[in-house]
Amino acid sequence: MKDLKVITIGNSAGVIIPKKYLERFNLKCGDNFYVSEGKDGIILTPHNPELTKAVDIAADIAKEDYLLLKKLSKS
User: So where are the chain's domains?
Assistant: First the structure.
């Protein structure tokens, strides 16, 4: 594990990702990420348009069918 440092980049901040991680995870400059919180810290997940669409659809279904989903979860 390597410690990374938050650095100033213009008016923003960023983290330099070592080359070995770029290669291991097939990342390149310009790739988008999601950031979320895990029990041990920050989780970065590469952007996946298909997953984003599926999550959006699932969220819509959950909103529309909340009561049905609640009943099913108790079965």
Answer: 6-73
φ/ψ (deg, to 5) at 14 = -155, 175
For tokens 């983290």, the residue is 15
Contacting residues for 7 by C-beta, under 8 A, at least 6 apart: 13, 14, 15, 16
Identify the H or E element spanning 46.
Answer: strand 41-46
Looking up tokens 């213009």 gives: 10
pLDDT tens, 47-71? Answer: 777 888 888 898 888 888 877 877 7
d(CA 44, CA 31): 12
Residue 75 to residue 67: CA distance in whole angstroms: 13
- CB within 8 Å of 25: residues ≥ 6 apart: 46
